[in-house]
């Protein structure tokens, strides 16, 4: 398996994969593929990593710049998806490891909204006062690279449609 940057020919496959992987998730909105398209169109896909095996795209991770409170310099992970027939083979872990490796050099830390049962294994956790409007605080997670506790609203790129103050 190879983890590589998205290339221009990948965009349709990425959209299909995001939709396939998230369709069974109760919290999915059905707009996640569109979010990736909007980020791409806006030049805001700071990371767009594809997992490829035998020429097929089987996993994908998007990363974009985010703010926590007034603090710029955070990397927002999501969506992260793996083809359902390839779950539990370490593909999500490999994509996340590469994203964190790259961002350690350039970001204060990484953040996301997701299941602490999964993302805890990478060191993500909730922090007091770390919020996203409308989300339970236990799913708003961060991994500060210098260990400093982040506090405030995790402000996503407008493509996520969260109606936050950018
Ligand atoms: C979540 C997801 C990306 C994980 O990818 P993956 O390649 O299957 O993950 P890995 O193989 O690296 O890790 C699998 C491990 O995570 C665990 N795991 C997967 N989803 C989990 C969850 N929601 N809660 C707790 N553990 C979870 C598996 O049980 C497995 O544990 P094990 O290694 O102890 O057996 C994949 O299941 C997926 O695409 N799910 C649907 C989309 C989604 O939920 N994306 C995240 C929100 S955007």
Characterization of the model:
The chain is α+β, with helices and mostly antiparallel strands and 166 residues long. The protein has one domain (2-160): Aminopeptidase, CATH 3.40.630. 24% of the residues lie in helices and 31% in strands. The chain is built from four helices and eight strands; from the N terminus they run E-H-H-E-E-E-H-E-H-E-E-E. Strands 1, 2, 3, 4, 5, 6, 7 and 8 form an eight-stranded mixed sheet that branches. A hairpin with a 2-residue loop joins strand 2 (47-53) and strand 3 (56-68). Helix 1 packs antiparallel against helix 2 (32-41). The radius of gyration is 15 Å and the shape is globular. The N and C termini lie far apart (37 Å). The relative contact order is 0.16. The model has no long low-confidence stretch (mean pLDDT 95). Residues 21-22, 25, 78-82, 87-93, 114-115, 117-118 line the site of coenzyme A.
């Amino acid at each position: 398996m190879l983890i590589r940057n998205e290339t221009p020919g990948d965009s349709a496959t990425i959209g299909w994969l995001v939709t396939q992987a998230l369709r069974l998730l109760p919290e999915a909105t059905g707009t996640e593929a569109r979010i990736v398209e909007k980020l791409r169109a806006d030049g805001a896909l700071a990371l767009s990593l594809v997992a490829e095996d035998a020429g097929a795209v089987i996993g994908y991770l998007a990363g974009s710049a985010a703010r926590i409170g007034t603090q710029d310099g955070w990397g927002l992970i999501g969506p992260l998806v793996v083809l359902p027939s390839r779950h539990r083979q370490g593909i999500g872990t490999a994509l996340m490891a590469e994203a964190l490796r790259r961002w350690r050099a350039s970001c204060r830390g990484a953040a996301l909204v997701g299941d602490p049962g999964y993302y805890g294994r990478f060191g993500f956790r909730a922090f007091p006062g770390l919020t996203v409007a409308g989300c339970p605080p236990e799913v708003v997670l961060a991994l500060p690279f210098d260990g400093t506790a982040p506090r405030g609203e995790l402000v996503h790129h407008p493509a996520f449609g969260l109606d936050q103050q950018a």
